[in-house]
Design brief:
six-stranded mixed beta sheet, alpha/beta, globular, single chain, 41% helix, 283 residues, Nucleotidyltransferase, domain 5, 2 domains
C-alpha cells in the first residue's frame, strides 16, 4: 500500500514530506502578496514542486500544469532566489548535511567531515537554444556552440560550486573563473576551506595554472592522464567521480541544453539538480 505522503504527490518530480521538511528550513520566507488579507498566499511547497517539474521535465515555464501556481509566480521565485544566491546557499547547507550523515567506507561509526579535503574539477559543453542570452561561444574541440559548465565536486560526487561560461572559454581559463568565484564567495570559501588536493584531466595541466591555484587557494593540482595504451572506455582513477556527477545531472531534461538567458540561472538549475539528489539521500 502506498504511503499517505506518496499519494499526495501528483508528479514524480515532487518532493516527499521529509524532503520538503529539510528544504523548507533553508528557504527564505515567502513574500507578502498585495491585495489585502483576503487574498490567498502562495503555497511555497507547490511553487518549489513546480520549479522541479520544469527542471525534471525540461518544459518551458509557460507550459506548467494548471494545478501549480501561475508560471509568472513560479519563475519569479526561481529568478529571485537565483539572483540572491539562495540555491547556492541551500546546496552548500545540504552538502554539509549529507556528508555528516554518511559513514566513511571501512569505518563503522566514523562519519565524514562536513567539509571536504579533496575534490575533482571538470567541464561540460552544452548547446544553447535560439533564444538570445549572455555568454555564448563555440567549443572547437567538441564542435558545440553554446555554453560550458565548470563544476567542482567532492570525493562523493556532491557539487561544491559551478561556473557557467561561454563554450569558447578554455579549461584553464574556466578553472580560474570557477576558483576566483569560490575565493570571492564567503559561503563557498568556507565550504572548500579544508581542501588540499584537486584532481583534473589533461586539459588543466601546466605549471602556470598549478602555480596560480597554489598561490590563490593553497591547493595541490594533480593531473590524472589517460593511458594511451588502453583502447576503448577505461575508468580513470578519481576522474570518474566528476563524470558520474555529470551523469546524475543529465537525468534532468532541462539540463540537456542550456535554455536560460542568464548564466546565473543556468548555474541555479545545476544547483537545483544536485539539491534534488541530496534531498533524496536525506530521506
Amino acid at each position: 500500500m502506498p504511503s499517505k505522503d506518496k499519494s499526495k504527490r501528483k508528479y514524480p518530480s515532487e518532493l516527499s514530506g521529509k524532503s520538503w521538511k529539510h528544504l523548507s528550513n533553508l528557504l527564505p520566507n515567502p513574500k507578502k502578496r498585495p491585495g489585502g488579507p483576503g487574498r490567498p498566499s502562495v503555497d511555497m511547497r507547490q511553487a518549489v514542486n513546480a520549479i522541479l517539474y520544469v527542471l525534471r521535465g525540461g518544459i518551458s515555464w509557460r507550459m506548467l500544469p494548471n494545478d501549480y501556481p501561475a508560471w509568472q509566480t513560479v519563475y519569479g521565485y526561481f529568478n529571485e532566489w537565483s539572483r540572491s544566491g539562495v540555491w547556492e546557499k541551500v546546496n552548500t547547507a545540504l552538502v554539509r548535511q549529507v556528508r555528516s550523515s554518511t559513514r566513511r567506507p571501512g569505518k563503522r561509526k566514523k562519519r565524514r567531515k562536513k567539509r571536504p579535503t579533496a575534490g575533482c574539477i571538470d567541464s561540460q559543453s552544452v548547446k544553447t537554444v535560439q533564444v538570445g542570452g549572455q555568454d555564448r561561444g563555440y567549443d572547437a574541440g567538441k564542435s558545440i556552440k553554446g555554453r560550458k559548465r565548470f563544476i567542482l565536486v567532492d570525493t562523493m560526487g556532491l557539487l561544491l560550486a559551478v561556473k557557467v561560461t561561454a563554450a569558447s572559454v578554455s579549461e584553464k581559463a574556466g578553472a580560474q573563473l570557477l576558483l576566483a568565484k569560490i575565493q570571492a564567495t564567503r559561503r563557498l570559501m568556507k565550504l572548500c576551506g579544508r581542501i588540499k588536493l584537486v584532481w583534473a584531466d589533461a586539459g588543466y595541466q601546466g605549471p602556470d595554472l598549478a602555480g596560480w591555484v597554489a598561490a590563490l587557494m593553497g591547493w595541490t593540482w594533480q593531473i590524472v592522464k589517460r593511458n594511451d595504451d588502453v583502447k576503448g572506455f577505461a575508468v580513470l582513477p578519481r576522474r570518474w567521480v566528476v563524470e558520474r556527477t555529470f551523469a546524475w545531472l543529465s537525468f534532468n531534461r532541462r539540463l540537456s541544453k542550456d535554455y536560460e538567458k542568464l548564466t546565473r540561472n543556468s548555474e541555479a538549475m545545476v544547483y537545483l539538480a544536485m539539491i534534488r539528489i541530496m534531498l533524496k539521500r536525506l530521506n
